[in-house]
Specification:
Blueprint lengths: L2 H10 L2 E7 L5 E4 L2 E4 L10 H5 L4 H8 L4 E6 L5 E9 L2 E8 L15 H6 L4 E6 L6 H15 L3 E6 L12 E6 L7 H8 L6 E4 L5 H12 L3 E6 L4 H11 L5 H11 E11 L6 E9 L2 H8 L6 H7 L8 H10 L5 H7 L3 H7 L1
Parallel strand pairs: 7-11, 7-12, 8-9, 8-10, 10-11
Antiparallel strand pairs: 1-2, 1-6, 2-3, 4-5, 5-6, 12-13
Length: 348
């Protein structure tokens, strides 16, 4: 079996990730769980299998003691995001199998109100969640909807570039960290001089990047970005906590002016075993929400979300219990993903 056939086999089985470690069996992540595939038990991972994924520059970087992030393509155009590292003195790598095409909102069962968000001309839209929760896919769906409906200029800043967009109505420039630009903050500074309408920031990791993204939204651009947090309210707190103490009040005022939406996302396996479904907690930037943020009363945002259900807001536990009652997920999955298991158990 060639390496390309191996990747295609993983895709055919519905895997989202592959874990390779020298002298160990390959492991696939299917519907969120790690699984050893019996028919691939004779596939032994070797140094050569992993090293062949690297080009000369990447191999030199790796030999200098660095982990290496990159994207590689198969002959059919399928793209994979890969991280090569060492463990216990041996080589290993984690491979994320990226979708070859961007799914539609209907395919992913996303709420229709995301289309309304896509029509915004300025402001900040955040998608948060743990690693592997589908944040990039959700934002790519929003970007592709903008691409199909609006003749604008979109700049994406990614590490690495995951989806490639076909030109529709929009002009899209995709910049990859490490290949096209050194870092997120440098790319954002440049983006403001490149006549963008929409800017996608793959991840807001530090204060400088956050401040530049907020400034871009303030100056009339639509900025979409991801954060690694659990819960929409935690995303707001994460940005405030990243600021120097003497800047926090200023950031609260800025966020209250430009925040359009925070989406917190998690993926849960479907009860029938056919795949996973995204559960979205949604905080909209209503006047009430912005007043709470400006007044530094973020702990009261949950009440605003409960009162704003008719506007499209949603709390994670309410979404989860709805999926359970519709027979989409099991009781165990509902309890595992809930923010308050005791209350969830009582509702069930």
């Amino acid at each position: 079996m060639t390496f390309e056939e191996f990747i295609l086999s993983a895709r055919a089985k519905g895997a989202s990730d592959i874990h390779l470690s020298v002298d160990m069996e390959p492991v696939f992540r299917i519907n969120g769980d790690l699984t050893s595939i019996s028919e691939l038990s004779n596939v032994q991972v070797s140094n050569r299998m992993i090293i062949q994924l690297l080009n000369a520059d990447q191999e030199e970087n790796f030999n200098n003691g660095n982990d290496v992030d990159f994207v590689f393509e198969l002959k059919n155009g399928a793209r994979q995001r890969c991280n090569v590292f060492r463990q216990m003195g041996k080589l290993a790598c984690a491979i994320r199998l990226l979708n070859s095409t961007i799914p539609s909102m209907e395919d992913m069962r996303l709420p229709p109100m995301l289309k309304e968000l896509s029509l915004k001309r300025s402001g900040l839209i955040l998608v948060t969640g743990v690693s592997g929760s589908g944040k990039t896919t959700t934002l790519s769906i929003i970007l592709d909807f903008i691409n199909a409906t609006r003749p604008c200029h979109i700049i994406t800043i990614e590490d690495p570039v995951e989806y490639r967009y076909e030109k529709k109505l929009a002009t899209i420039h995709q910049r990859e960290i490490g290949r096209d630009v050194k870092g997120f903050s440098q790319a954002l500074k440049s983006a403001l001089r490149e006549d963008p309408d929409v800017i996608f920031v793959g991840e807001m990791r530090d204060y400088e990047t956050m401040q530049l993204a907020v400034t871009a939204a303030e100056t009339g651009h639509l900025v979409l970005a991801t954060l690694h947090t659990r819960g929409a309210i935690h995303a707001v707190n994460r940005i405030i906590d990243a600021c120097p103490h003497n800047i926090q009040q200023q950031m609260l005022v800025q966020l209250s002016q430009i925040l359009e939406c925070v989406i917190s996302q998690t993926l849960m396996p479907l009860k029938d075993g056919t795949g996973r479904i995204a559960a979205l907690e949604i905080l909209l930037g209503t006047d009430a929400c912005k007043n709470m943020i400006r007044s530094n009363k973020c702990h009261q945002l949950e009440t605003i979300m409960q009162q704003g259900k008719n506007l499209g807001m949603a709390l994670m536990d309410d979404v989860i219990i709805d999926y359970y009652r519709r027979g989409l997920i099991t009781r165990e999955i509902a309890l595992f993903n809930s923010t308050d298991r005791v209350e969830m158990d009582a509702k069930i």
